[in-house]
Design a protein that fits this description.
Layout (H helix, E strand, L loop, with lengths): L15 H36 L2 H26 L13 H31 L6 H26 L3 H30 L4 H28 L9 H9 L4 E13 L2 E10 L9 H16 L3 E7 L13 H6 L2
Helix pairs in contact: 1-2, 1-4, 2-3, 2-5, 2-6, 3-6, 4-5, 5-6
């Protein structure tokens, strides 16, 4: 427990200078990638209308989602950790999650429109300009590879950039599909390849959207992040000297790449180390942060659970006993 006016117990922060450098680099990479993507989307959508190509329009719609994803990443790097107030103690971390939800729903609308138009064109296939599709698709490959190259280094350090990076990897496959459609139409006059492969782009959109929606729903329901094994976390903490039991454990995601944990720790009666309770708290923080990559940690130490009214969540003991 902390004294009034002292810092919150177990609230872990990283190195501000390192975080600032990473954020600055990530923002520059995202802005450069955004310029590339937006410029290409305009060119691809225009070419799609000129070529009468559904696959170019479908891929442009998917690239719009990339641009929105980059915009969300920029917002995350801009406001993360800077907007906490007394009214919003966690700031606007969840804004990124809500924006991702809107983005996913918009992609569903795009995919439905693509499927509808692909079905209509399959029944009555119009002629399209295969050469233009091939050229624009090839440029799209270059743009995607360039954007991925711009972000690959920042993606290893910045969770906000990592999400955009993964989105671009999926879209790179879409560019390959566009190139294949262009080759089939240009070389073999298979005009039906345009609506058929546009339907494949629609399936790719739905696939990426499903993963996005699943992650958003899990965050909003405050589910345990996939990389955190709560049972292993509890076991390691209970192995520490002086700890009797860990209970009322909660692990959840505030925003992508920013996980939180709260827990009550029952300490052995009369336990005292050379450094006191601060040493025990440091060891607990080390486990949570270094072993499980949890960034926001709040621990309450107790000598008795008699007045603890919260749900105890001690089923990890059963799981440990079965090992």
């Amino acid at each position: 427990m902390t004294e009034p006016g002292s810092p919150p117990v177990g609230h872990h922060h990283g190195d501000p200078a390192e975080a600032g450098n990473s954020t600055s680099t990530g923002r520059r990479s995202l802005i450069a990638a955004l310029v590339l993507i937006v410029g290409y989307v305009i060119a691809e959508a225009t070419s799609g209308f000129l070529a009468g190509s559904l696959i170019l329009l479908a891929h442009a719609g998917h690239m719009v989602a990339d641009a929105v994803s980059i915009g969300i990443g920029l917002a995350a790097t801009r406001y993360s950790g800077q907007s906490a107030t007394a009214e919003r103690t966690y700031g606007f971390h969840r804004t990124e999650v809500l924006a991702s939800l809107v983005n996913a729903l918009a992609l569903w609308v795009i995919a439905i429109l693509v499927f509808f138009e692909a079905y209509r064109r399959y029944s009555d296939t119009p002629e399209v300009q295969g050469g233009l599709i091939l050229v624009v698709g090839s440029v799209g490959l270059v743009v995607n590879v360039s954007a991925i190259w711009l972000l690959h280094e920042s993606a290893q350090r910045d969770p906000a950039v990592q999400g955009v990076f993964q989105h671009l990897i999926v879209d790179l496959l879409g560019s390959v599909v566009v190139v294949v459609a262009g080759v089939l139409v240009w070389a073999f006059d298979w005009h039906v390849a345009d609506p058929v492969l546009a339907g494949l782009i629609g399936i790719m959109i739905l696939s990426s959207t499903w993963r996005l929606l699943s992650n958003v729903v899990k965050v909003l329901l405050e589910g345990t992040p996939e990389h955190i094994d709560v049972y292993a976390l509890c076991y390691q903490i209970e192995e520490l000297e002086g700890v009797t039991l860990i209970h009322d454990v909660h692990c959840w995601t505030l925003a992508p790449g920013y996980d939180a944990m709260t827990a009550h720790i029952l300490v052995e009666p009369g336990y005292q180390s050379d450094e006191g309770h601060d040493s025990l708290l440091d060891r607990i923080r080390t486990i949570a942060y270094d072993e499980f990559d949890i960034h926001h940690i709040t621990i309450q130490l107790e000598t008795s659970a008699s007045r603890c009214l919260e749900a105890h969540h001690v089923d990890h003991l059963v799981a440990t006993a079965r090992r």
